[in-house]
């Protein structure tokens, strides 16, 4: 799997989707025009005034096209606006309830632990998890416009039936959709199909109104309403064909990615086999399940009379790809099976906690700096593997219990972020605490005081993963709390009248991610498809990175070597020395670079990493700046571990 290629493919599929749906809408426009002209022809035939030449009326066609497009577009925008708050809106639409991070329920806690491990191993914020309590079947979904507003939804049947390995396989499958950019396309499908469906709903409304009318012309209204109803559902018919075609192939890719992630085919295959053996299978009972049927882990609807309408490949085929020895025999499954495994898994967890844990971040030191292929870093982006999972689990296990508990609730999560910003200098820290005492909620200030001793002994390498761990809880703040949180972060950073690289990274990443939830979703920007269009910004970040880890001539050499990664397009880049770097407006530079196309982002990541390892060593400042750049590019970078 290639993250950048997947992102590029997702963009192309979106364009193809718009073209296909546009063609379907055009056919509907033509059909509606024909229906209207049919009435005109019928009337003119009665009066003897009909002429075939009169069948084409450009003005009427334009009016029909305009009104139809207005209905479809407004219906699509309305539906998308309902979902604009992110994946949480989808989960709540299906009756999902947010699982609190501090839950004591074993099965829910196990699920949250798996999601946290996956998120840290992937390099994305930990998504909130919603439980669909009334769903008996085994199913799950990932929803959102980006990793920053993504959520994971899972059914009660999956929670109570699957073992930890099986559940991990399902969650890994959903994380693949998050990393591959599938979610945004999924939500666009929901919106566009609703716009087409609106034509049918208008036809139904006309039929109902005409049935109550005693007017002589009500017959014509009935026929027109019936025509709209039929044409609308014909459009939905073709829309569902397109939706199914788009979805099926992605499920194979997500299965393969999940196995690559976990290196455990038995887990995912076992979950699919249990779907076949469970009476409820993967069926969803909620009335709105059909709208997002293409987003589920497995087919959530009853078998269709035509395979073309299935949003998922046949269950047996998915299993056979994972387990070639599968003979089509499904095990008998009870929903209480996971409960019976609980004691055994608790014992295993206790055993893991009892083993000697390496310090948080001890494996981070460098990313295969001796590897001759510098492109290994861009290959790792969006493609976590088992070693990243093991590191994430080790890191989470090494965090003090007080920090884990704090990150699991909105008050404590804010305290964690504040605590990470507190200075080691006692004078500065005293000033910062005074600012917090007046600016923060009392409960948040108390929580900050409580965990301060624990944070002071935290390994540097664990700070950014801890930031990701707190994101799910931070997203549950109110808008007013977010604004206060934003101001307090700014006050803490400015307390010593200087901004460190870590402080800038934390502020830029945390607030940028949260703004997408509290202010507005990312506005669409023009994609920059050539590095020449952003040569100044690219030169700026490469110069900064070169000067962070190298001195004088060596810094220039590192920059030149990095620029060579772009080939001819890198010839126009200009090196900035240490003094010139001081005038760089980094927030503006990073925001501009966020608009790069997937392939150009990949080139920039490769060039930056080339600059990073020019002297065959990576300092903590270099590592932090590189991760800041990758975060700003919206690329999920797994932890750096020696493999």
**How many extended strands?**
4
Shape: globular
Poorly predicted runs of 5 or more residues: 346-375
Tell me the domain tally. 4
Distance between the termini: 18 Å
**How are the strands ordered across the major sheet?**
1-2-4-3
Tally of helical segments: 26
Strand content: under 5%
Q: Any idea what the CATH superfamily of the largest domain is called? A: Metalloproteases ("zincins"), catalytic domain
- What is the CATH topology classification name of the largest domain? Zincin-like
| Secondary-structure element series | HHHEHEEEHHHHHHHHHHHHHHHHHHHHHH
**Major sheet attributes:** 4 strands, mixed
Counting helices, strands and paired strands, the structural category is: mainly alpha
Computed Rg: 28 Å
The first-level CATH class of the largest domain is given as Alpha Beta
Can you give the helix content as a percent range? 55-70%
Q: At CATH's second level, what is the architecture of the largest domain?
A: 2-Layer Sandwich
Kindly state the mean pLDDT as a whole number? 81
